[in-house]
Amino acid sequence: QVHLVESGGGLVQAGGSLRLSCAASGGTLSNYAMGWFRQAPGKERAFVAAIARSGDTTRYADSAKGRFTISRDNAENTVYLQMNSLKPEDTAVYYCAADRGFYPPVTPRGIDYWGQGTQVTVSS
Question: How far apart, in Å, do the first and last CA atoms of the chain sit?
């Protein structure tokens, strides 16, 4: 059983930056492809970014391309999401996700483990 804990969320003005972290315990992170998803009030959980087990392949939602960067440190069992040029529409709860597959998970379906989420609020 892998336990994921997100941190780094908060309130930021539009144009600002945040770095989210996802620390894993109870398992070896290198055995999982990892992803970040977000859910705004009244909306479905949506893909943001994902990274393969080895870190050599990444995928981004169109809304995240050029602004967000996903990375991982398997030795530290941690995944990161650097978010720059934040916009009010980025406001959501951000969830870390672990998938036993090799490839970056780009859909919430089939995710093996979820974190509890961290709130990101971007003010205009």
Answer: 40
